Amino acid sequence: MKFYITTPLYYVNAEPHIGHTYTTVAADCLARFYRMKGYDVFFLTGTDEHGQKIYESAKKEGLDPGELADKVSEVFKNMWKKLNISYDRFIRTTEEKHKEVVKNVFKKLLENGDLYKGEYKGFYCVYCESYVNIEKEGENICPDCKRPVKEISETSYFFRLSKYQRQLENLVETTEIVKPEFRKNEVLNFIKKGLTDLSITRKNVVWGIESPTEEKYTIYVWFDALLNYLSGIGYLYNNELFEKYWSPDVQLIGKDIMRFHHIIWPALLFALGLPQPKIIFAHGWWISGKEKISKSKGNIIDPKYYIEEYGVDPFRFFLLREIPFGLDGEFSEENFKKRYNSDLVNDLGNLLNRTLNLIDKKFNGFLPDVKSDENIINFCENVYENYSERMKKILLSDAIEEIWKLVIYLNKYLDEKSPWRENSVKAEETIVSTFYGLRNLLIFLKPFIPETSEKMIEMMGLEKKEIDKFENFRIIYPGRIKIGKREILFYRKK
Ligand code: MSP
Known about the structure:
Blueprint (H helix, E strand, L loop, with lengths): L1 E10 L6 H19 L3 E9 L3 H9 L4 H18 L6 E4 L3 H17 L2 E11 L4 E3 L17 E10 L5 H10 L3 E2 L4 H9 L5 E2 L1 E2 L15 E2 L1 H6 L1 H4 L7 H7 L4 E5 L3 H15 L6 E5 L2 E3 L2 E2 L10 H8 L1 H11 L6 E2 L2 H31 L10 H19 L3 H22 L7 H21 L4 H10 L35
Bound molecules: 5'-O-[(L-methionyl)-sulphamoyl]adenosine (MSP).
């Protein structure tokens, strides 16, 4: 009953934009879901602070790379605080503990014969921090980001990636490690084309972890960064922690960094003799005007605007609801507003208001003491099952869709039964049942919109802690409950 989940470590050359918040909010939602299921969760995130790209960014700003890393990692932490990200550890790759682990892994692999010294001759893209094959002779352009690449020729240590070709093929073919399913072939084809050994040291990069070798190199930033998933939970220094949580249950990444995570990372784990992650899920991109949203494209969407204008939870909700997790989607304020007004203001906000108004007007603010309609109880059971199944498959927007069936059902139930028209036991039952459904709805929604769920629960006169665990959703309240103070959570936007 443990659940270990990670996000990529974000580069400190840019402040968090919508893409970074997307992965982190999704991971947070899953971490909260499993905690509410009763799992012992460890949620790791952090910042990737070494390498030439960071070094050059710092220079441009007139800072030491360490100063830039200090500054920007704080900005990330503040953003996560704003967004209610419930991480257990925020790791920075410049931490001593992490550096030690990286050096020790290097030594281990050297001793095992998984590293060897050779000559690297080829191209390097600083922006992608990646060794690349150029497509056209003479045109030294990165095939991924289309920026100019550098030609390098230097002595280097290589990781025997090619040695793990068969094992990797087998891993991808026979396990769930590559998700979503439709990505599997892409990864397999890449492996089958043949893997070449990977240079993991750099001669002329100063901002990196020093190699534990006689002649000094700095360690390639991706080798350094990937190992955070081990160092973040105590590998080689806190056995108890490590044993408890290894291996990762879900690792979330964007589709841009699949090769590193679906190939190099598992190969490193093979070399270290460690069990593999269960799922490495690659989500799609937020697009604006047909292009991936990124600092370099100049089409950045600043989460701060949406948080201020609409609120933290509407922002979390939109990210996870709007596009199927795994696919790309267009981010626009128009779409945001539509989703906000229809789902949060109309459907959810109205349901709460109607229910509480009825209790107020008809029963002086006290919930009547009668039994719930069996139909609603069964409906909730059903929704919970379908919702849980989607969450386990990391189909986050599908999971919300399942929950929304309950929102729609309850609104319709009220319309049909029209309890405001009569004063009878039937009317009492309708209201109590809606109240029961609504309480469950807020439990189901809590991983997505934690603050709203808690506020709404208080408005219903219930305690926040009652919605901490899914197991509470079946509790049927006997007795009179006095509903709480009300406020409007979602204002309609024009
Ligand atoms: N530092 C590496 C990861 C090392 S992990 C050991 C890196 N960092 S990054 O800052 O570039 O962040 C990459 C992640 O941000 C992507 O994998 C993805 O999760 C997210 N996104 C960045 N832009 C994005 C979009 N436009 N849309 C969705 N997510 C994207 O790569």
